[in-house]
Structure formats: structure tokens, C-alpha cells
Amino acid sequence: MKFINKKDLIVLIILGGIISSFFIFSYVFSDKNVTGANVFIDGVLYMQIGSEGRYEIFDNENEYLQTVIFNNGRIKVIESECKNKVCEHTGWISNSNQKIICLPFKIVVEPIGGKDDSGVDLYTW
Predict the structure, then answer these.
(1) Hey, which end of the chain has fewer CB within 10 Å, N or C?
(2) Is 115 helix (H, G, I), strand (E, B) or coil?
(3) Which domain holds residue 9?
């Protein structure tokens, strides 16, 4: 018994090609336009990042929460004290439409710079 015929295979290949070309197009033509970031803790601006480097984030009791690195127009959380590490697994952000969010500590790292005109409002993983 055949589960897939020749026409189904052709449709799958065409559909896969269209989806792949969309991702390649959005990656190649995305602007690396992040010029810094705003870091918010519980909705309050904690720090503004404007130059390349490594930045450590502490709470009101001076307890370490996480480390953010800004390099070459990209930003990333490289270390965090939260248990689930979603903010670390977000990876490098090079688009000002994206954000890095750490829910346990209520930290939002919001890249700043020119907005990307790709038409994409939100990226999810």
C-alpha cells in the first residue's frame, strides 16, 4: 500500500521550496540595525545599552540576575540565574522588532535602532 503518490511528492517539494525561500529571503535581507538596547525590570527602565560590551543586571537588593552582551549590532543574554533559561536560548537578536524576555525576573531586553521594514511584526521560536 502506497502512502504517498507522485503528485503529493511534487506538491510537498514545491511547498518546501516556497517556505525555505521565505526564510532565506527574510534572513538575507534583514537589516542588522540594532544600535543598542533598553533593559526593563518589572516595566521600569533599568539601563540603556548604547555601546558594545558586557552588561550585568542586578535587582534592588544587588543580587545578580543575568548578563547581556552587545556586539556587532546584535544582543544576547549569555548567562541568567533563572531556572528555565529561555532568555539564554533566545540567542542573538539582530532585529529591533525582537525582544528578549525573562519571565521569572520580569526582565525585558528591547533592542533599539531603526525598525525592520520586512513586514514581520513578531518572531517566535
Answers:
(1) N
(2) coil
(3) 1-30
